[in-house]
């Protein structure tokens, strides 16, 4: 039975949102709704306009016989600014201060709505850039990896500091923990990363960059390619950082255990991202 | 500027899907689109019908001055059956067999599309049941917890087997690992679970139920309430299982290391779930 436009628009929106960065042929929708391709084209033009107007993301049209449409999640600068200001404020709550000057983050990184926004923000940096897999290290980076991978619609892999019988053969590397200057070990299941894969590294917190640098070594061991680094929060680090070219959503500028204060601000993310409202001709990469 | 129906339907769909189980007042949409409440009511009736027809979920209407609408994700029986049959087939791939008869799952549990379906399936069991928080134990349960929490739109907490300075004060319990019969320890940050919270426990794999039983002990220590247990896969266990009343999406019936075979089937999930197409008058619980 032919489906009305109103119902088509609702289901197209639902369908695309559940499959980011995936090319859907027009013929798929035409068959699904028993409607003419010309009607579907009109539907998609309305979806595209509405997604752009409401800051939902990009609807990319790929012309030709092998063409179709692709929904690419991306946020506007205003959305990112508001999110990061609120997040910085929450990060600075003095109740987060732990002995030793550590900052408690587990509540924030256990909230799906916050994680989804983090994922959308990081994914916005890869609208024009191909990525095959997101990598993180257990435990606290996992939710960020999963949220990011979900909006990029690619798999994520988890590097571990301990060995597990459920991972099979692994490749392990030693790395220098930047903050403590100790030699540590991390490993990744051999079958989880293929040669040549383009890898985006994410983590919850970076200080000195030792852990991220360890993941870079691991990526080299797999003959894969590091295409980007994104962390939720970076700490001011007095020494020489072990990585450059990373994105930080937030920056912890000061932790004063005596006065019980935390100073947090948006990180460098806002300066090195092209937002939905700033993109001219977006090109997506995942099919 | 008044927004056309076609654009309203797209944006309402997008807005609701991003906020599962959250009550949205009609007045919110009326203001957002500068449209009459009667027009919004008509829009929502179309969304409700389409969501039901396409197996997207329930659009619950709450009448009265404090009322509004609420999108509750849920799947149909057919969707669940198809997903579980495919997942069982993948689980039985002989390449998954690891030394000691362990089964490699990390690739499946690192794919956002699979995780999202797992989350939707588990969330379907809680359409009528209040849940405040999802709990799991590090590491492999985390992606399942996050996906489930995302569709329930509630936080998740991570129990750890090791101590971390970034967790603050913790409560720890000892538990008997069902399969190895050893005494182990697990702990949870004190500030991450409040008294009386209704907790859904999830994990990737269960054999004997020792780990899940440990989480039950922990929930008791926090004076919280266990409202359900869901695991991705359970293994056939010859001894007396330490938990009953759990849901398993899949069941590993046999692992033969000599003949290199794994036999996997859908678990008890299909038998103890009321699906989208079987619900009479759904009642949601999260506002």
UniProtKB/TrEMBL annotation, chains A, B:
Transmembrane segments: none annotated. Residues 109-245 form the Phosphoribosyltransferase domain. Residues 4-73 form the Bacterial purine repressor N-terminal domain. Coiled coil: none annotated. NCBIfam families: purR_Bsub. Belongs to the purine/pyrimidine phosphoribosyltransferase family. PurR subfamily. This is Pur operon repressor. It comes from Schleiferilactobacillus perolens DSM 12744.
């Amino acid at each position: 039975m032919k489906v009305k436009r109103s119902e088509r628009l609702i289901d197209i929106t639902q369908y695309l949102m559940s499959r980011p960065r995936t090319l859907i042929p027009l013929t798929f929708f035409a068959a699904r709704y028993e409607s003419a391709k010309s009607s579907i084209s009109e539907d998609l033009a309305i979806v595209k306009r509405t997604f752009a107007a409401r800051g939902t993301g990009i609807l990319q049209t790929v012309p030709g016989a092998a063409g179709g449409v692709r929904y690419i999640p991306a946020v506007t600068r205003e959305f990112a600014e508001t999110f990061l200001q609120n997040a910085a404020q929450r990060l600075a709550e003095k109740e987060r201060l732990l002995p030793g000057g550590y900052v408690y983050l587990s509540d924030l990184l256990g909230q799906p709505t916050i994680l989804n926004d983090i994922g959308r923000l990081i994914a916005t940096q890869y609208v024009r850039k191909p990525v095959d897999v997101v990598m993180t290290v257990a435990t606290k980076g996992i939710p960020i990896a999963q949220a990011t991978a979900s909006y990029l619609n690619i798999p994520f892999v988890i590097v571990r500091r301990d060995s597990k019988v459920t991972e099979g053969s692994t490749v392990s590397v030693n790395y220098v923990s930047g903050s403590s200057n100790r030699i540590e070990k991390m490993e990744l299941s051999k079958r989880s990363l293929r040669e040549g894969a383009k890898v985006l590294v994410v983590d919850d917190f970076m200080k000195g960059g030792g852990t991220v640098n360890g993941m870079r070594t691991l990526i080299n061991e797999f003959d894969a390619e590091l295409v980007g680094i994104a962390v939720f929060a970076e700490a001011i680090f007095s020494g020489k950082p072990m990585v450059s070219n990373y994105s930080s959503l937030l920056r912890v500028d000061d932790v004063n255990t005596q006065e019980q204060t935390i100073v947090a601000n948006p990180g460098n993310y806002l300066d090195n991202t092209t937002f939905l409202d700033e993109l001219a001709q977006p090109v997506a990469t995942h099919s």
